[in-house]
Amino acid sequence: MLISMLKETGALLEGHFLLSSGKHSDVYIQCAKLLMYPERAEKAIGLIVDKLKGVDFDIVVGPAIGGIIVSYEIGRQAGKPSIFVERENGNMRLRRGFTIEKGQKVLIAEDVVTTGKSSYEAIKVVEELGGEVVGIACLVDRSKEKIMYPVYYGVKIEANIYDSENCSLCKMNRSIVKPGSR
Ligand SMILES: [Zn+2]
Known about the structure:
By secondary structure, this protein is of the alpha/beta class. The protein has helices at about 1-10, 30-35, 40-50, 65-80, 115-130, 170, and strands at about 10-20, 25-30, 60-65, 80-90, 90-95, 105-115, 130-140, 150-155, 160.
């Protein structure tokens, strides 16, 4: 169901894409295209909240910008506060008077988890303040490597990612699209 919601909103595209990293992929995901519809966002994130039954957390933290809406909606549905970390001079930190208290159980929320890099940056901020991270919630889990925390995902999507000089899709002469440029 989430897959079809992602496809019908254009949040999930299949083809041959040039990613911002310079790599090529057969899948492109832009969750903002689904989250722009509040009713769909409510339903999609409700699927994650269902999986969080039995998970004890006090607060949700979404790395800006991608995690903010997911974090907010999980917080709304679960009745928990939602805050975000954001980048300042390259480093993730809590601003705006947001705080984490020692021993607070924290759920990290993301739109997409790929390498877990932004989640790990958020986790570092939380743990330095004494918070205890209980897991990562995300709409789409496209990770290949093992993520070091429990991941509660809406849907898991396998994508093939290629180096530009060794791309199967290039070899098939499939024309490449740079998403967001159209
Ligand atoms: Zn290619």
